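Handout, section 4.2: multi-component inputs.
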Amino acid sequence: MATISIHGLVKRYGPVTAVDDLSFEVNPGSVTGFLGPNGAGKTTTLRMLLGLVTPDTGTATINGRRYRELPEPLHKVGAVLEASSFHPGRTARAHLRIQALAADADPSRIEDVLDLVGLSDAAGRRAGGFSLGMRQRLGLAIALLADPEVLILDEPANGLDPEGVRWLRGLLRGFAAEGGTVLVSSHMLAEVAQTIDSVVIIDHGRLVAQGAVADLIGHGSGLEEVFFQLTQEAVR
Amino acid sequence: MTAVAVPAAAGTRHRSLGWLVRIELLKLTSTRLSYGLLAASVGLTVLWTTLEASRAGKPGGPALLTGYAGQTSIITGGVWGLILAAVLGATISSGEFRHHTATFTYLATPSRGRVLAAKAAAGAIAAAVFGLAGYAVTLTIGLIFVAADGYHLAIGAGTLADWGFGHLVGAALLGVLGVVAGSLVRSQFATVIGIFVWTIIIESLIGGLFGSVRPYLPYTAATALAGTPLGSASFGPGRGVSSITPLPFAAATGLLAAIAAAGALIAARTTVRRDVT
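Output:
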C-alpha cells in the first residue's frame, strides 16, 4: 500500500509564497482531509505531488518516488483536480476510452466505473452538457479506471447533491477500508468531518495541524470549531 | 481498490511513442472539431478552385486551361488544405490548455517531451489527410473543367502523383508546425488567428518587400512542395508573383522540418515545462 510523503515543500510565485516549508505524511487505509482556507496552498501542494507544478525546494513522493518516476502512474494514483478538465465536445465514454488506452487498463473497466459513478445512462452524452456534479462523477470514474492504490481529490464534493455527497462518502470509506490511501481537499468542513479519519490543516502555505480527527477534536467541539481556532491562531 | 474492482491489465513500464500517438489520434477522432475542419478545408477548396477554374483565360484569372501552366495553376492552386492542416495541428496542442485536459494528459504521461513528440506525429498523420483531401478536390475539379472545355490533359501521371505526394508532405509538415505553434503560444484562439495572419498577410508582406526571401517562408515552401508555382495559388503570398523560383522539393522539406524541429526544441525547453495550474 502507498504512503504519501511531503517534505519541506516550497513554492513561490513571484513575491507570494504559496507553499512554505510544508511537511506531512498520509498513510494507507485512511481518508485524510486536506483542509485550509481559500488560497492556503492546497491545490498547489496537490499539483506538486502529481508533478504538474515544480516545487522550488522539497520533495513530494508516493511510496518514496516522485510522481513522474512511477512506472505506471495511473495504476498507482487516481486524481481529480478540477471538474472542468474535459473536452466539451467529447462524450463521457470517449473520455474514458482515451484514459483507458493511456493507462493500458482493461476496456471492460469503462462500463464498470460508469456504473459505479452513476453515469451509465449519460455515457453517450457530451461532457459539455454535464452539470458540475456529473463532471465530478466523470472525474472520479477516470480516477478509478486503472484501479489505483491512491486517490487524490481536490474538492470532489463540489456540485454533488446530498445523495451524491453520501455516495462519495461511502466510496471513499470503502476505498480506504480496502487498504487504499485517500487524500481529499475540501472546504466543506461539515461534510468532511463525516468522512475523514485524519486531517492535515494548512494556512498561508504552512502546516497548522496534523493528526487523527478524534485527537484534534476536543470535548464538545467540532472539526469546524477546531479549524477556525487553528487557522486564526496561525494568522496571529 | 474499488467496489467493482477488476484486475487492471499490467501495462508496459513506459508507453511507446506509437502508443502515445494512438492516444492522440483517438482524441482527434472523438470530437467534431477535426471533422469540421476537414469539411471546411474541402468546402473552401471546392469553392476557390471552382471560381479560379471558371476565370481561366480571363483578365486577372489564371492562364487558359489549354496548356500546362493553366492546368497546373488549378490542380495545385487550392491550398486551403495546407493552411487548415496547420490549424488542425494547433488545436491538437493548444486545445489541451483551452479545455484543461492537459492535466489528465500529463498525469497519464508525465514525460512532456514525449507527449509533444506524440502530438507532432499525430498532427502530421491527420494533417496529411487534409493535404490529400485538398489535392483530390483540386485534381477532380481541374480534370472536370479541362474535360468540359474539350482540352487534353497536358500533365503526366507521374507529375500528378508527385504533386499528390507533395500535398501529403507539405500538409504533414505544416501540421507539425501547427502543433509546435500551439505548444509555444498555448492560446488556441491566438494560435489559429496567428496562422491565418501569417500565411495570408505576413508572408505576403515579407515576400513582397524582400522577394528573394519569399521561397524560404514556411507556408510558401509548403505550397512549393505541393507543386504550386509561385503566382498560381488561389490566394495568399503565392498569388500574382511568378518571377521567383520556388525551392526544390528536398530543400523545402528540409527547411520546414528544420523550422519544426527548432520550434519543438524551444517549446520543449520553455512552454512545455511550465507549471500546469
